[in-house]
User: Fold this.
Amino acid sequence: MTDSELKGAVLPALKKPGGAVRDFLRLAMEKELADAVILPMKVPSGDSFAWILMNDISLLDDAVPIAATMPVQGAKALRSLTRKGPGNLKIIAVMRPCEIRAAMELSKLGQVHPENLILATYDCPGAVQLQKYVDDPAGSEEYFAGMLQKGKPDDSAKPVCHTCENFSMFDSDIHFGYLGLSEKEVLVIPGSEKGSALLEGLGLDLTKDLQAWEKGIDQLKADKLNSRKSTFEETKAQLNGFNGLLSVFANCIGCHNCQSACPICYCRLCYFDSETAEQDPDALITAAEKRGGISLPVDRIMFHTGRMAHMSLSCVSCGQCSDACPVSIPVADVFSYVADQTQRTFEYTAGRNDGDPLPLRQFRKAELPGVHELVKDADAEVPSHE
Ligand code: SF4
Ligand code: SF4
Assistant:
């Protein structure tokens, strides 16, 4: 189906978009088209949100489908639910596009089993930085309301939101669209057969032309692409050479919070947290004697470059790493820039659900002539997937 043929349905949206999404989920559960839903709810202290898996429809009243900030990346929640298999519950997960994209990457790595999940995204205007939200929940809600109205992130948003080109429909099963529309309405759009089946089961009238919404989204995207270009140029200049990298991460205290918050870093034990990575004290002293001094701990740049090498193909620029950094290093700006370069090199877009496997999990001989030369004697034993 081409984009121009894609149709949606209009949800009764006298309320804000979040209210329309809540009503939609209520209907899906009442009609037993979903056993449960997963979406954010405010924590009792009111200064953050938690992911709640709920099968009790009455809990929906307190849910906040489109939350102002993102404390835990949603893909992590989906991984914890499905890493051992799809389970028996049919669950609708309502998440930001970057969260669904991360879940898609994790599914390619066998960490999320989406078979029984219906992945729902929405037009994301941006997310308030977590620390700002925790410091001032009421003020942050006002900022977020402004972002929803304008369709654009403001200064309270994560820096990566200003450069995010994938803030709208992106390979989810269903999508809620509302940004850029002159009329106050919320559209629900199918993105897969699973999504179409759900909307048909709900009896929604899928005849709404999407051109006005698509035009609005394209305009917002054009602004983001300009911002992305200039931000990446600045980051590139900052990262110039090894000294540039050293300078960006000069304040790093080696806490590895950025790695813990990242949805793609799923390893139970990271090499950089293992005993193997611990430097031998004698070697450190020898190095200090040779060079006249060394900075401790020694693994900081290695940690960041190692992480980039491992996961930049799957980085979805969600900004969780920056939010988690206690010393305000713009980790996500750096990783987004590097991810953009890596993904371009491999002609790959993280989070696509088009059957494309992760590039580093397969290779074509033609892509690696040098390596093929080296291994030609062992060619018969080298697995290849043309
Ligand atoms: S590296 Fe940072 S921006 Fe990229 S996926 Fe991980 S947490 Fe998100
Ligand atoms: S969260 Fe910040 S300080 Fe901690 S390891 Fe990552 S970059 Fe360094």
Observations:
- Strands lie at 7-11, 36-42, 49-54, 91-94, 117-122, 174-177, 186-190, 208-209.
